From TrEMBL:
It comes from Methylovulum psychrotolerans. It comes from the Bacteria. GO terms for biological process: pteridine-containing compound metabolic process. This is Dihydropteroate synthase. InterPro entries: Dihydropteroate_synth-like_sf, DUF6513, Pterin-binding_dom. Residues 93-358 form the Pterin-binding domain.
Length: 462
């Protein structure tokens, strides 16, 4: 027997909800019931408790996505499970698809080595602060970078401090003395050893990252791998990722070749050579590079945040590794898993067409302005009319708020957001900040739907 779902809505959205459900052809039966209020977004759980006298035999009740109040209490009152639906009706098909396929993003395979490239120039306090930031954004290992011809007298002190604070630590240098000192001080990893410096691995307990003697010298890398395998010691192999136009494609082939030759070994990819040395947004680069890691079973990356344009690289890599792991586990494409990597665009930026917006505007009978976007531009409307443009300044003469500074300011902010969303292809929702995925620290919704939104500063009249 199929599930029966009761959808609660308002007068303005009732017809559209019927149309969407009919087109969905869902595998459940349903009832659409409007509660006698015009705007569904103004519904509260208290209203539902007062007005809903029949649950129509429903196994579940779906409320509008912005319905405020305690749905657990409402569920107990009605003795039926109550859930919030999506904020936009047009997202209903995707909403039910998400419910059918929930992805676990708590798991990942790739460890992130976050490099502090200028460690010799920093104090213990500065390194601990940077390490805490990297760990907050997803780093598993803090990599202390040594600088050429630069003394590093506080290396041991830094390693001891990081270890005492619970960090795993690696030392990054091509100078034998630095690597030996780091290993003796308790570093967990050494970046990087090659065939000629492999003796250091016999002197310390740290796990070495092995690189070729020269970039294309895979024979030397094979010999180093064989030596470590003969000693039955752990190691990680990094065939070296080169920047674009300086051997990038050839180096990708090198990674594939090493994986083919050595199916079971641990490998590392230095993603910073691409994210730092390419002036383009790093989120897409990290998605692709972590996808390569997923395909080649590369379980370690070395990431950096030196250039300002790469200031979110660690966090982006963390989100990307989780998405790629989930996709690989489910044998699916890395699509519709999590929106964190969609920073400047969205899958469905314009849920409503101009025709649908015009139909909604024609039903409005109050003076409050609604703002929506479509593929054609910005739309603002109330009972006095609908106005559309691609430039917010073109809308101002129609708004009649010249004598109401607070209202004008509010509409200016909202129209500016709408213009940015329209230009980039992002979702705009009035009274809510634009979402930027993992590009900001406020990627997750901060609205508490258990509480009621206080009156804004533009509402009171003196």
């Amino acid at each position: 027997m199929s599930e029966h779902i009761l959808f609660l809505t308002g007068k303005l959205a009732e017809k559209q909800l019927h149309n969407i459900l009919e087109k969905m052809q869902p595998d459940f039966t349903y009832t659409v019931h409007q509660l006698g209020l015009k705007v569904a977004a103004l519904m509260t759980t208290d209203m539902v408790a007062r007005r809903l006298h029949d649950t129509f035999g429903a196994d579940r009740i779906i409320l509008p996505g912005r319905c405020r109040g305690d749905i657990a209490a409402l569920s107990a009152h009605l003795n039926v499970p109550v859930l919030r639906g999506p904020e936009e009706l047009k997202d209903l098909p995707q909403y039910f698809g998400k419910k059918a396929q929930a992805y676990d993003l708590s798991r990942y395979q790739v460890k992130i080595f976050a490099e502090i490239t200028d460690a010799p120039n920093l104090s213990v306090a500065q390194v601990l602060e940077r390490a805490a930031y990297y760990r907050h954004n997803g780093a598993d290992v803090i990599d202390l970078g040594c600088l050429p011809s630069t003394p590093f007298p506080q290396m041991e002190e830094l390693i001891h401090a990081l270890k005492a604070a619970g960090f795993r630590v690696s030392i990054d240098s091509l100078v034998d003395e630095d690597l030996l000192r780091g290993g003796q001080a308790g570093a967990d990893y050494l970046l990087s050893l090659h065939e000629s410096s492999l003796w250091i691995a016999d002197e310390v307990a740290a796990t070495p990252i092995l690189i070729p003697e020269h970039h294309d010298d895979l024979a030397s890398l094979d010999r180093a791998i064989a030596m470590m395998q003969a000693k039955n010691k752990p190691f990680i192999v990094d065939p070296i990722l080169d920047p674009l136009h300086f051997g990038f494609t050839r180096s990708l082939a090198r990674y594939h070749e090493v994986r083919t030759r050595h199916p079971g070994i641990e490998m590392m990819l230095g993603v910073g050579n691409i994210t730092e040395l390419t002036h383009a947004d790093t989120v897409g680069m990290n998605a692709l590079l972590l996808g390569i890691c997923s395909e080649l079973d590369i379980n370690h990356i070395l990431a950096t945040e030196v250039s300002r344009h790469a200031c979110r690289a660690i966090k982006e890599a963390d989100v990307a590794r989780r998405i790629m792991f989930a996709a690989k586990q489910q044998a699916t494409l890395p699509k519709h898993i999590h929106p964190g990597l969609m920073t400047t665009h969205e899958i469905a930026p314009f849920p409503y067409s101009p025709e649908e917006i015009r139909e909604l505007a024609g039903a409005i009978t109050d003076p409050s302005f609604r703002i929506q976007t479509s593929a054609e531009g910005l739309h603002i409307f109330n009972r006095d009319g609908l106005y559309s443009a691609t430039d917010p300044f073109a809308l101002y003469p129609h708004l009649n708020v010249g004598q109401d500074g607070g209202h004008a300011f509010y509409l200016g902010v909202e129209l500016a957001r709408a213009e940015i969303a329209w230009q980039l292809g992002k979702r705009f929702t009035q009274d809510q900040a634009l979402t930027w995925g993992c590009a900001t620290d406020q990627a997750e919704a901060t609205v508490d739907l258990h509480t009621f939104k206080p009156a804004g500063t533009t509402l009171p009249k003196k």
